[in-house]
Every structure is written in structure tokens, then in C-alpha cells.
Amino acid sequence: MKKDLLHIKREGLATADDLRGRLPDESTKKEGPYAVIECFEEIPCNPCVVSCRFDAILPFEDINDLPYVDFSKCTGCAVCARVCPGLAIFIVDESMQGEMGTIMLPYEYLPLPEKGEQVMARSRDGSELFPATVVRVLKGGKGKTALVSLEVPKESLQEVRAFSVIEDESPAFHSSETYDPDYESPVVCRCEGVDLNEIRDLIARGYKSVDEIKHRSRAGMGPCQGRSCRQIILNELARDAGVSLDEFEGGSFRPPASPISMDILAKGGEEDAENS
Amino acid sequence: MQKTADVAIIGGGISGLSIAFNLAQAGVKNIVVLEKNFLGNGATGRCGAGIRMQWGTELNCLLSKYSCEFFEQAQELFHNNIDIEFEQGGYLIGAGTDEEVEQFKRNVKLQNDLGIESVFLSPEEAGEIMPHLDITKIKAATFCHRDGHLNPFRTTEAYSEAARSLGVSIYEYTEVQDILLDGDKLKGVRTDKGDISAPLVVNAAGGYSKLIADMAGVDLPVYSQRHQIMVTEPVEAMQDPMFMGFSLNIYIQQVPHGSFIMGRSDDSEPTDLRLTSSWQFLEKMSETCTTLMPRLGQLKVVRQWAGLYNMTADAQPIYDEAPELPGFYHAAGFSGHGFMLAPVTGHVMSRKIMGEKADIDVSCLNVSRFKDGGLLPTESSVV
Amino acid sequence: MISIPLLIVGAGPAGLCAAYRAAEVGVDVLILDRAQKPGGQLVKQTHKFFGSEKQFASTRGIEIADILFKRLEDLPGRVELLTDATVIGFYEDGVVTAEVQGKFMKYRPEACIVATGASEKTLAFTGNDLPGVYGAGAVQTLMNEYGVRPGNRVLMIGAGNIGLIVSYQLLQAGVQVAAILDAADEIGGYLVHASKIRRAGVPILTRHTVGLAYGDEKVEHAIIHALDDEWNKIPGSEQQLDVDVICVAVGLSPLADLLWQAAVDMKYIGALGGYVPLRNSDMMTSVAGLYIAGDVAGIEEASSAMVEGEIAGISAAGRLGFSSEESHLLKKDCLQQLRQLRAGPGSEKIRTGMALAGAYV
Amino acid sequence: MNSNRILEHPILEFSEGSDIPFSFDGKELVGKSGDTIASALHAAGVRVLGHHFKTGHARGFYCAIGNCSSCLMIVNGVPNVRVCVEPLKAGMVVNSQNDRGVLP
After folding, report:
1. Which residues of C touch B276 (CB under 8 A)?
2. Contact yes or no for C150/C177 (Cβ under 8 A)
3. What are D's interface residues with B at a Cβ cutoff of 8 A?
4. Does residue C195 belong to the interface with chain A, where contact is any CB pair within 8 Å?
5. pLDDT tens for residues B21-52?
């Protein structure tokens, strides 16, 4: 991990600093629309570079390379913005006269706004910036990713990265209600209703393996075959012993992997008898 | 790990633990139990854990009666409060053939004479005890209300806790690798955690008892056969007794948790110590069960597994000191009944080791009977 | 008892790709899947995939499922796909048992590919069994397969790719997401997914976890708190959120029950999600003729699952005596694709894990 | 009643399925073709599918793909049916399961 990625990895947010080297120079900005690619993490993904008809995204040596735009070639055609699986490409146009420019944003929500509609422009963290007018809507078509252009003051073009259709105030999630829980122990085995205290108690009494705990507590004996509880029990055992998980036996797995009725099993034998 | 012991017991199943408990209770000090895995991981934790007094030979009736009476008072005898879940819902044994009907009549007579309160029932009477049984499939039945079944894991724990509190040292995950001899004299045992010198060694290794005997260079005429078992999802209580049939080839019980556990025997099962399962068992067991108890057909099987029956030629145990190696004792060859015999196993073996007389004379269960042509009358009441 | 050349367990991305490559060279294939329709988890993936063209990049998972399924028609080998067909047993005599549409079936395959995917890990917190606490897969299933909203306001636990993607899907379905929590220091999932969520105004709280869910027989509130460097609750950091769904996306474990039954050599490799079978570069386990592909071989993206499926399919076909001139080249290309998919800095753990599992990296 | 149904979705199209009537604890409900019992109940606002036989806790589904057995209900009299993977059929009688179940 590159050191300068750490803040993004913590917040999920890019800052103006991260955009350095990703924007055209001032004179190129005036020539026409261009793509801003906010893709900062090397992951195996290349549709943008493959889709560009103008070779305006620098060729990849490796599928994990980061995309960089050759602004001398980029026409702002938005093909890459349509195909980017991460919805991380935005088309900025500040070539027009006057105070206002446009930003084209990928959009996969409903309702899709209409041209002329007022929407709320939002920043990278979703906070409200200002109302803005929709100037163009490209429907999603086959790929289903719509592209929506907003008219935005030029100085805010690198701030606006989302919008929402203006609606009633969404309710607050926080409540001030206080609660005095009777702190029941978390459930570990959903099938047999075995809780964490029971498991910890057995471990404290010297039970050392998944199978021992299964026999004594029934955790893992239910119809799901321990799919939900085994991992938690292993974690508890490892934590208690102060060793890593790979030092433990996974415990037994026995057929059938999924419950099956005796009527069905019994008929299996009859059919063989008929066939032979 | 300790270096010496007065008695080293090989096998942390219910037999070994019961022997340890009985010895300690009788005042023997410095007892160790050696278990290569965890307690009860062998046949003990894999068995149906039923206990019945309805047998066809006098000795088996007496042995099992001792055990049943022990389990009835287990809580007081163990001095701990572990609930072993001894559910005395009785054993209902169904006769599938005319020969069995006659045999069962003789069995009930024998049992009654020995003070075992079993009764001979018509199919209709059996149906009253177990309404989901298709009574057209049986010719008669016997029933003893004091028979029942236990939770094998809790019973193991109750025994081990009782033994520990009497000073027994139990070593789990400790595998016996050799029996140490000094010339032709017993010296002790070698484990993967070190040697223990002990003048007395007890082979209670269940399915693996022949391997242990081989280490000591003594003959133990037993072999182990895989025996399969399966369990269903739980439902509310609907069957009190363990149902069993010999010619019908089934035992099936509903445990307090609500699951049905059932097994059958099959002569074609392998005898090479493998603990795998087979799909054939699932089919045949389900067929047997749904034929006898059609209502259970909708129950779903959640798991199957296998354990080892440690078999002898007459399907009865060996309680003896090895003639070739004084101090080396066998408690083996339980032929599928080791769990229910555990209390009496502990009693008779501890007396034998201490050179005292036991409440029941088991001298006929010696290891020499297989050579001398002294096989016991075959017990017909087995699955 | 039915004898068949190749049995594939699971009709997800790995299984379908394996079937394609095997049938392409003439192998008759039987695929069994426990679900009502094929596609595995692809049928709920509404987002566009990463990767390259070979792994259908920029195509949505739901569409990939269709493509993979449809291309199985008209191949030289016959592909039979049975749904509502749950494989339940692998036995030492080589017999595989299944419950197929209400019947107990026994198969004796010459080769078998296990592509059973993964199951979701669970989290121990008080109230974790209240109705309303759902696995992320369940939320996806409900929403994207059945068109039913899981609730109105969701607290997401886990900021890995699944947590981020499902949060986005919730927003698309008109469900509010109160917050995404992760006990780790960093967002585990791809940044582009995280940024998408942040733009929608959803906070991502790293170093946070859920302590308690409560409500009258269903989730009504959650109490969350921050964690210190020792993973202990920071006193006073509690916040109460009013949510009706707590979605648990704390990772996946390989669904390897059948492989345990088949007694293949397994190893606990945390980086791959838990116990995984050891394998060679052909995706064959320690049991000859038994292959693996996809999440059951180690938790990764669907793109890698598809390529692993292809390798397993080519290899199993080869073992059965079916191969073409291209098979060798194709396998080489697949191995190269896998290497590329795992080459990024974010895949370091995967590379380490795969090396331990014996895979080609 | 079907307020939890997604009628419009930016990516997916949910075909207007036909109505499937069924009953839950004596109440008449309507699901859609393609539903499982669990999805139909959830769409109808039912979260609690029963109570655990040991803890008494309310139970809902958890995994929705037949892995976890958290969603056992009584369907047409048969207990322990995993409703998250059981296709809904017209006329089904679905009941909460609050114990281990009683065989019909």
C-alpha cells in the first residue's frame, strides 16, 4: 500500500491533494471536456483503457496499473465513464465562456432526473453543496449506468462528485433514548442455542478442541453442521491458548452435508433394487 | 508428566475411567489414565449409550443389572452434580420371528427369576407403549421399564470428575506407544510424552485394545468392527423407550434433546479400524426405520458416524489378567456393550487387580476360554 | 447408481466455467446445484465486475451468470445441469450422494470438481440472533433475487468489498444505510466502492464495532462503539443508531464440508478465509481426480473463481483423456490471468495464502 | 401489504409475478411467484418466524441460502422446514415454530 493512500483507506475519501497530476493544465482545460479519473488503488481492472478509442488513457503494462489520462488526446467522450465498474470517472467541461462549467456524473439510482430539473449537488462525502441544474441526461441503456451532467460554477467543478434528487429531510439515525440492556451473551450456535459464555466456560474448564466443545455443549451438532459457530469457537480456542488458528484441528465434518429425510433415503435403496 | 504410577490405565473411555474410579474409591493411590485423544473420543462418545437388563444369559443379566443400579444412584456415588441424563424410558424389544417369540418368553422367565421386572407383550400392548410403531411388523415384544439410556459425554465427564476428585491423574492427548518390559516382567508404559513405570497396567483401549496387547506381546483374541449410527434433527418428545430388535436389526431411541439416534449391525462392515461412514448404511437404516415406524419418515437425518465394536468370538467381554504377563490386565472385547457394562467393568476389574472378590463371579470371562474351547453360550440378544 | 465422467458440484462462476472448458473438448458433464437456478452468487451481483475482458469486466454479475449458462449449449460434450440438487456426501468408495429434486441419488464420477463457494462468517455480539440481523448474502438474496427490501434503515458491519457493495445495492433499492462499521484500521474493500458509498453520504467508521442489538423481538436499535488499539471498547464512545436491519458482512469461509468428508488435505490459511484444501497448479486436491475451484479453494473475487474453474475444467478433462491442441495453451493463459488478477498490492495476502495452499502464484 | 416489494430498480427488473395465496399463523397472506416462503413473509412484514426451543429467543432467517437453519418453520404440518429455500406454493399453511416441532 502506498503511504499516501492511507487516509483514503481510512475514510474512503480522496482529497484535492490526491488529484494532483490527474488534472490537465489550465490551457488544456479551456479546450474542451476531459475525464477525471479518481482511481487511486492498484486493483486488477482495465475496462477504461480498453474502451478508449482515442488511446487517451496511458497504456497498462499490468492489469493492476493505475489509469492516467493523456489530456492531449482525451475528448471527454465519456465512454470510459460508462464502463468504469467503480463509477470513478467524471467528465468535466470548463471550456465554455462565463462562470459556469459542467460535470458529468455516473448515476445508478432512481429516480433519474430530467433535463432542467434542480438537484442537490454533493461533495465526495455526500455533504450538500448547492442546488444545481441538470443540463444533460444520458440514459443507462444496456450497461444501465446513466450519466447526468450538472451545471456548476467552475470553481466547484472539482468539489461536486454526486447529487441527489431533492427530497424531504431524511430522518436522523441517532436516537438519544437510553437503554439498559440485560447483557445476554451473544449466541454462537444458532441451531442449538449455545451462547458465548457457555463456550468460554468449557474452554476455561480445559476443553481443548472444537469436537470436545461440540460433544459437551452441542454447539455444531445442529442441522447446519457448525457452519455458523465453528469459526467463532476456533477463534475462542486460539485466543485462550494464545496461538494462531492454524494450530487447531478444524473438527469433524460428517455426512450428510445437508439434512435429508429418511423417507427419501429409504427410497434410494428401493430404486437401486428395482434397477438391478 | 509423572514418571511412576501404581496403576496405569490405557484408554480414557468410559471403561478405563470406571476402572480408575473404582480403584481410587477402594483406596488405590497414584492411578493414571492415558488417553491418546480426548476423553470419550472412542466408542464411548460414538455409541448409543443405552442400558438394558433384558438379556438372554444369566451372566449378562447380572452384569447389566449391576450397571443399571449403579447409574440409578450415580449422582450420589460420584459426589458431583453432573446430570448424566439417565432416562429410564425402558427398552421395548420387538420379536421379528417365531423363534424370537419363543426365545423372548424364555428370556423374560430368566430375567424375572433374577429380579429383573421385564414383561412379555403382545404387538398391541407394544403399540400402546410406542404408538408410532407399526405393530404388524412385530410378532411380540418384551419391555423393562427400568432400562434406558444416558448422555455419553456427560457420563464420561461425571466419571472423570469423580475420578479426579479422588486423586486420579488423567492425561489426555497422550498416546501409549509401547508397553515397557524388563525381560518378561512388566515395567510400565511408553507414551509420546514420556515413560511411566508402573507395576500394573490395564488395557481398556476399546477398539484399539488388540494394538495395546500386541505392544505387550500378549495374546488378546479380539477384533474390531466398524459399527455405524446416525442421528436426526430434534422433535418434541414422542418415544419414551429405546426400541430394539435383533432379527429386525435396529436400535432406536429418542434422546432428551429430541433427536433420534439409531444403528444396526452389518456383517460386511470392515474390521480394519477405519471410522469412515457409508451411504449404504443411510439407506438401509432409513429403510428399516421407516418400515417399522413410518411416521418417522419425515424426520431428517443430520449426521452419521461410526465407532468400533471390539468383538470376541462369543460376543462377551474379557475381564482377566494376561496369563503370559502378570500385572497386565484386559478389560476388552465388549462386543458393543462396553458403555452399559462400564459400572460393572470398573467394579470387577478393580477387585481383580486388588486380588479381592467381586460381587459377581466373572471368572468365566477369562482370556483362555477361546483356546480351551470354553466359549460361553452365545448371547442371542445383540444388535 | 449412475456412473458419469465428470461431476461438478456448484453452478456458480467457477462451476459453470469448469463445465464449459471440459465440455468444449468433449467431456459429458453433470452439474449439480442446490439452488433453484444456476449462477451461484452471480445472480445477486448487480454491480459491474472489475478485471479484464476475459473475466467479463464491466459486465454486471447477473448478466455474467446468463452468459456463462447460455454458452454451455451446443458444445461437443453434453452438459446436464440439475438445480434443487444438493450434494450431501462424499464416500471412500468414490460414491457421491445427493438429494436431487426430492430423490436420493448416488453417482460414481471418474473426476469431480468441487465449486461449492463459501458461507458467511458470523459475529458474536449481544442480540446477534434477533430477527433483523442478517448475513450480507441474505440481504442481497432478498433484495436482488426476490425484490424484497430487507428493511428501512440498515447498519452495515464490515467495510470489505461485500459490505461496500451490499450497502450500495441497498441504496439503489431505496433503503437507507446508517453507517458502515469496520473493526479494522482501514477499509478492506476497493476504494472506488468506498468512495461511491461516501458520495451517497454514508459514513464509514473504521475502528468501530457493534456492541448490542435490541428491540422487541426484532432489531430496533444498535449500539456501536469505537475500539482502541487493543480492540477494546472505548468508554463513552457509544452511539445508539435506530436501525431495523443489522447486516453482517464480516467475511466468508470456504464451504468445504464435502472436501473434509472426502478426506483431502486441508490447511488453515487465514488469508484465504479459513480451512482450504491444498492443491496443485491444476487445481487438483490431494485426492486424485478431485478438483476445486472458486471460493471453496480460497476466498477471492468472482473473476479469479471463473479462471480457476477454467483451469479445473481443462485439467479434469485432460485426466479423462480429453484435450485439444489448445488445451495446454489455454491453461497457460489461465494461469497467467490468475497471476495478473493477484498481482496488485491489495492482493499480497492472497498471494501469500495461495503459495501456502500450493497454488501457482 | 407488500410495501417491502421493490417496484422500480435502477439495474434490475422484477417482473410483476402472479399472486400466490398462503396462510401464516392463520392469517391469509399473498406472495408472488418466484418467492420462497421466507421472502414472501418478509415482504408481508413478518420478521419473526418462530422462537428457539432452548433460548426462547425470537428467530428470523439469517443466511437465506439454506446454510444456517435459523429459519425453521412448520409448513403444511411438517416441522423444521428451512423456509429460506422452500419455494412458496399456493395454499401453503405456514406456522411459526416455537418448539422442536411435532411430526404429523
Report:
1. 91-92
2. no
3. 53, 78-80, 99-104
4. yes
5. 999 999 999 999 999 999 999 999 999 999 99
pTM of the model: 0.96
Return the SS3 of B238: coil
Q: Where are the domains of chain B?
A: 7-47+153-222+314-370, 88-146+224-309
Average pLDDT over residues C276-297: 97
Residue A7, pLDDT > 90, answer no
Which residue on chain A is closest to B39 by alpha carbon? A212
Check if CATH label 3.30.9.10 holds for domain B88-146+224-309: yes
Q: D63 contacts in A (CB within 8 Å)?
A: 228
From first CA to last CA, the distance across chain A in angstroms is 63
Quote the pLDDT of residue A177. 59
Q: Does B35 touch chain A (CB under 8 A)?
A: no
pLDDT tens by residue, A111-170: 999 999 999 999 999 999 999 999 999 999 889 999 999 999 999 999 999 999 876 555
Evaluate if residue B10 carries a pLDDT over 70: yes
The answer for residues whose C-beta is within 8 angstroms of residue C328's C-beta and 6 or more apart is none
| Chain B contact present for A260, CB below 8 A | yes
In chain B, residues 287-316 whose CB comes closer than 8 Å to chain D: 295-296, 298-300
Q: The domain at A187-265 falls in which architecture? A: Orthogonal Bundle (1.10)
Distance from CA of A124 to the nearest CA of C (A): 5
pLDDT tens readout for residues D16-63: 789 999 999 999 999 999 999 999 999 999 999 999 999 999 999 999
Residues 6+ apart with CB under 8 A from C108: C1, C2, C3, C4, C94, C95, C96
d(CA B49, CA B257): 14
C2-119+252-357 in CATH: which number? Answer: 3.50.50.60
Is C130's CB within 8 Å of D60's CB? Answer: yes
| Cα of D102 to nearest chain B Cα, Å | 6
CB–CB of B157/B82 below 8 Å? yes
Q: Is the pLDDT of residue B111 over 60?
A: yes
Residue pair A115/A137 in contact (Cβ under 8 Å)? The answer is yes
Q: How far is CA C72 from CA C8, C18, C161, C311, in A?
A: 14, 10, 30, 16
Q: Cα angle at A135 between A133 and A141, to 5 degrees? A: 120
Which chains have 3 or more CB–CB distances shorter than 8 Å to chain A? B, C, D
Distance (Å) from the C-alpha of residue B233 to the closest C-alpha of chain D?
8
Q: How many residues does chain D have?
A: 104
Q: Higher model confidence: residue B371 or residue B51?
A: B51
Q: How much is the ipTM here?
A: 0.96
Tell me the chain D residues in contact with residue B238 when contact means C-beta distances shorter than 8 Å.
102-103
Q: Which residue has the cell 445427493?
A: C98
What's domain C122-248's superfamily in CATH?
A: FAD/NAD(P)-binding domain (3.50.50.60)
Q: Tally C–D CB contacts below 8 A.
A: 99
Phi, psi of B15, deg, nearest 5: -65, -50
**Please, how many CA atoms are within 13 Å of residue A19, restricted to the half-sphere of its CB?**
19
Find, among D63, D60, D66, D26, the residue nearest to D45 by Cα: D60
How far, in Å, CA of C108 to CA of C88, rounded? 14
CA separation for the pair B231, C47 (Å, rounded): 43
Q: Hey, what domains does chain D have and what are their CATH numbers?
A: 19-95 (3.10.20.440)
